[in-house]
Recover the amino acids of this structure.
């Protein structure tokens, strides 16, 4: 295949803004087990930020701290200028943080469409009674939400499985549906926990394309955990490297790639 | 809009180009639906007036960007109303639309775009834009790329990239300033102008640009519409590649001539669902689509309850017995008629509904030989499936099967106003108004394509059977002669073998030989399944292919083919005398098949010369070692002792009668 012909294509007009998320001196322990110790990093608006590290390095714990599932013993999370020590996931979602999970967490028996509609849950204003009877505000609302969801379906090219129960789909597509549901919440910050785990090369390429498109089209800030180094180096602007709960490197893909500590962490050191 | 048959000569002059036809529809039936597209999960309709409006603005926009009479405008993407409109817009300005296959890689496109001297390209999305940018350096003439879907393209800064909507806005302004411009441009168009240029597949050398005039395409479209009484009420699903001549005929030329509605599916993957929702009345699909649909139905029936399954199979049996005859209006026993009626209520009707075929009045298949069982199945459940014959050069309009006169191995009688004759060497020759004008910038090839009397050489070999239906047997250049000078059509024999589910590929030999012999590739899935049900253990392809039981199974298939060949006096000498089952699967990676899975007979004959020799030497066994290339690029060797079997042949039909 030829190189991309024109340099103008590669040069993007994406805007990287100010710090949107700042994680400051986070320490998290479960009993005697220290999952994270004194980790700090920041994410700029419109950035694709990766967190990498060997198994058990504390990557997923970090995401769980950001969206309020875990409460760190020390440190703070500042999101859009608002500092918080303790926040519950519901509140985080309202603030505009959405996420996908390492092990897909969809409603297997429900259709793709319905699953994505659940992502709009927070945006619904109608009462339970109105929803149950499909009257009043609910009717109008649901049409508007459906349109939004259809845009996402179109965006992620999953029209053909719109009505298929999620449980019947192959893994790669389920991952895409999960991304769709996260997008349905129109997040400001999107957390992706291993979006490409268990995918084949083609599925990975598609997913990369979608992540980049989401970032470019909606300007969504993305924090992702991923093990595929090729992918990480390709699509992220900056990378945080964790090992045993500590941050050992932080920088652009090139800086991280050439960092001796990172190389040691991944390849092991001769003792 | 009056139907074409009622049209006077003056009216015909008013509608001698596609843009004029479009405007005529927009005037006569402004609110009728011209196109539908499923967008955001809802079918959006475009009326004729809207389409005309859309085309007007787009054409003016293209004009503003510099598109002029005689220019070439490439159209690349899935079937979208906007892309069909782009074809009309180009033609309105006297430019030529050049649709390309949307899944072609950039390098393939580069050749065509360069050869056609394309100045403008209207493409669907970022995928196509990226491909064009990749090859832009090699296309100095390409002046503008217009994309329909702006997604992902906002950050592209090339000055020659334009959003479709922006071009239309530009056109709207120009139209406002010069309201007569568009109509004037359209009126300058003549029937003999080139409307569309399509590229041949290029299986024999580089692709050639086939130039079609408005007149030729309209002649083919009018002929077809009258033949099948297609009118404004018909609906067609446009899902086949726009670069293919059939889509140009069905979704463009015929739609504009007869004024029926075209429906663009949401995406390539949703065609089955979309078809159910639309319920087309006029349908085309290549044989493999029919085959896939049938397979899906059969698989789903396996999971159905016992009662339903029993009902299904019982009534399919009834349909097999009398379904086609009822469809053809032939006499059928009263009891069968009643049973069929009941079956229609319980099985065939619901089945057609599931397949989205409830409303189909006319369905066609072409492009490849269709298996008799497959063909009969669809006809027996009440689908009026027919075959036609044509090529890119002949606007896909040469032979058509008339309702009620259907044969699975023929392609019908010559279409109205088409003259067909058979050359001495068996080649099919055609003369008609629906004929291409020339190959673009290839006067040599154009001259070669016609015989001295002006008949187009199709390159296909065939003959007319007793009922005057054309039977295509092979490509003329593949046609050979046996040692006794009898006709040998390898493709025809191979296709007959491949209709059996157990046979994946077949290669027939016989040119200059005393008899026909064949290599067979078994279908690992089908034969493997068959073996499992019999408790036959096997280690892999090579092992399974060498089993006696498998040989017996294949021998049975070969003998059935022989019986069928024997019934046709022209082909009785082509019966297969000896065959062997190859020890490895033929593979494009080993250059044995083309990428479109056609066997490369010459190459195979050379590579397996030892085996071919054994077929004609009377040997019962032959040792062979072959190099294979694995998918990861490694090479390995397979060696086996291949058995060769003799097969029963039958006396020819005539001789038997005598």
């Amino acid at each position: 295949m030829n190189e991309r012909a024109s340099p103008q294509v590669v040069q993007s007009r994406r805007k990287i803004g100010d710090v949107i998320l700042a994680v400051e001196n986070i320490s998290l322990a479960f009993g005697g087990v220290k999952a994270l110790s004194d980790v700090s990093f920041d994410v700029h608006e419109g950035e694709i930020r990766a967190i990498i590290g060997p198994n058990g390095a504390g990557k997923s714990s970090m995401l769980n701290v950001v969206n309020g599932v875990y409460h760190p013993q020390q440190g703070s999370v500042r999101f859009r200028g608002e500092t918080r020590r303790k926040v519950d996931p519901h509140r985080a979602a309202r603030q505009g943080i959405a996420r996908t999970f390492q092990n897909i967490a969809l409603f297997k028996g429900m259709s793709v469409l319905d699953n994505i509609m659940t992502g709009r849950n927070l945006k619904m204003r109608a009462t339970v009674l109105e929803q149950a009877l499909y009257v009043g505000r609910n009717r109008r609302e649901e049409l508007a939400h459906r349109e939004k969801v259809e845009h996402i379906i179109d965006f992620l090219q999953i029209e053909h499985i719109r009505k298929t129960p999620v449980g019947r789909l192959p893994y790669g597509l389920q991952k895409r549906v999960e991304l769709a549901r996260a997008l349905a919440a129109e997040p400001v910050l999107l957390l992706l926990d291993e979006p490409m785990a268990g995918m084949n090369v083609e599925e990975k390429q598609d997913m990369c394309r979608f992540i980049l498109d989401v970032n470019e089209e909606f300007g969504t800030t993305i924090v992702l955990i991923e093990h595929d180094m090729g992918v990480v180096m390709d699509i992220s602007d900056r990378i945080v490297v964790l090992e045993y709960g500590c941050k050992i490197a932080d920088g652009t893909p090139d800086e991280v790639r050439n960092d001796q500590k990172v190389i040691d962490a991944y390849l092991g050191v001769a003792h | 809009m009056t139907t074409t048959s009622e049209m006077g000569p003056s009216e015909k002059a008013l509608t001698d180009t596609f843009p004029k036809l479009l405007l005529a529809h927009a005037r006569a039936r402004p609110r009728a639906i011209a196109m539908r597209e499923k967008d955001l999960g809802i079918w959006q309709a475009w009326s004729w007036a809207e389409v005309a409006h859309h085309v007007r603005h787009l054409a003016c926009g293209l004009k503003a960007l510099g598109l002029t009479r005689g220019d070439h405008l490439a159209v690349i993407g899935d079937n979208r109303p906007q892309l069909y409109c782009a074809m009309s817009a180009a033609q309105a300005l006297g430019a030529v639309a050049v649709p390309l296959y949307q899944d072609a890689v950039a390098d393939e496109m580069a050749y065509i775009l360069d050869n056609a001297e394309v100045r403008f390209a209207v493409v669907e999305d970022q995928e196509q834009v990226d491909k064009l940018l990749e090859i832009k350096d090699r296309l100095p003439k390409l002046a503008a790329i217009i994309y329909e879907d702006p997604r992902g393209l906002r950050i592209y800064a090339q000055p020659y990239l334009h959003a479709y909507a922006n071009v239309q806005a530009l056109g709207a302004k120009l139209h406002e300033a010069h309201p007569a411009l568009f109509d004037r441009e359209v009126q300058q168009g003549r029937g003999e102008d080139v409307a569309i240029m399509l590229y041949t597949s290029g299986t024999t050398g580089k692709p050639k640009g086939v130039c079609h005039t408005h007149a030729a395409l309209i002649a083919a479209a009018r002929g077809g519409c009258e033949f099948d009484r297609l009118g404004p009420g018909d609906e067609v699903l446009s899902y086949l590649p726009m670069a293919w001549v059939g889509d140009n005929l069905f979704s463009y030329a015929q739609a504009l001539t007869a004024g029926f509605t075209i429906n663009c599916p949401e995406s390539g993957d949703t065609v089955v669902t979309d078809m159910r929702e639309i319920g087309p009345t006029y349908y085309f699909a290549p044989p493999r689509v029919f085959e896939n649909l049938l397979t899906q139905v059969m698989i789903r029936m396996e999971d159905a309850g016992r009662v339903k399954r029993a009902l299904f199979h019982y009534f399919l049996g009834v349909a097999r017995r009398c379904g086609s005859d009822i469809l053809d209006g032939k006499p059928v026993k009263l009891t069968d008629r009643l049973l069929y009626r009941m079956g229609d209520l319980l099985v065939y009707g619901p089945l057609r509904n599931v397949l989205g075929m409830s409303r189909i009045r006319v369905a066609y298949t072409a492009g490849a030989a269709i298996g008799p069982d497959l063909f009969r199945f669809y006809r027996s459940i009440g689908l009026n499936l027919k075959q036609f014959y044509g090529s890119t050069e002949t606007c896909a309009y040469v032979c058509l099967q008339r309702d009620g006169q259907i044969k699975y191995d023929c392609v019908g009688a010559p279409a109205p106003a088409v003259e067909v004759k058979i050359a001495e060497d068996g080649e099919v020759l055609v003369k008609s108004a629906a004929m291409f004008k020339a190959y673009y910038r290839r006067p040599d090839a154009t001259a070669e394509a016609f015989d001295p009397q002006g008949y187009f050489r199709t390159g296909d070999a065939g003959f007319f059977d007793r009922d005057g239906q054309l039977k295509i047997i092979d490509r003329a250049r593949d046609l050979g002669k046996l040692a006794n000078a009898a006709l040998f059509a390898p493709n025809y024999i191979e296709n007959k073998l491949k209709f059996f589910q157990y046979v994946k590929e077949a290669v027939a030999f016989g040119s200059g030989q005393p008899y026909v012999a064949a290599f067979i590739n078994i279908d690992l899935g089908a034969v493997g399944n068959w073996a499992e049900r019999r408790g036959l253990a096997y280690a892999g392809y090579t092992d399974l292919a060498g089993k006696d039981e498998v040989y017996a199974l294949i021998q049975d298939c070969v003998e059935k083919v022989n019986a069928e060949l024997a019934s046709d006096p022209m082909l009785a000498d082509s019966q297969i005398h000896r065959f062997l089952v190859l020890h490895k699967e033929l593979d494009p990676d080993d250059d044995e098949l083309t990428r479109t899975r056609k066997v490369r007979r010459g190459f195979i004959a050379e590579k397996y010369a030892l085996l071919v020799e054994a077929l004609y030497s009377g040997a019962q066994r032959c040792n062979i070692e072959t190099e294979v290339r694995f998918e990861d690029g490694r090479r390995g060797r397979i060696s086996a002792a291949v058995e060769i079997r003799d097969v029963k042949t039958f006396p020819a039909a005539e001789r038997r009668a005598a």
